[in-house]
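Table S2 (continued). Query chain:
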Amino acid sequence: MANIMIIDAHTSFTQSLSGALFDEGHMISWLVDTDDVIENVRTFMPDIVLLDIYFDGFERCDVLNRIKLEYPRLPVLIMTAYKPHVRDSRFVQADGYFIKEIPIDKLVKKIEQMITDQALNQNPPGDGKGGFHGHSNIR
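Corresponding output:
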């Protein structure tokens, strides 16, 4: 299965999501701070990153920018509870987004489909380069 990195400090949502993804056979790396995000990406080599864009009390477009600077083809999905963020031009580098109110089982299926599409498009899973192209709104 896939290596999935989740960057989010909101424990209840992330525990549910990571548990559901783990139950499907995926390896999960969950970061609750962003200090060593690039080192963690380099070590874990995720197939996809799920990034809560409102993190530590700040909008974290800097985290998205750091990931995309080092790993431009690694797919990053923005997670947010705030609908206005999905149209924010500062997050144009993201490969998609979802509002956290989506049911977990539906979200897991969509993430798995994106990982499958990524693997079919270009790169083998776990190469840390990604291969997903285009923006996706997961509903």
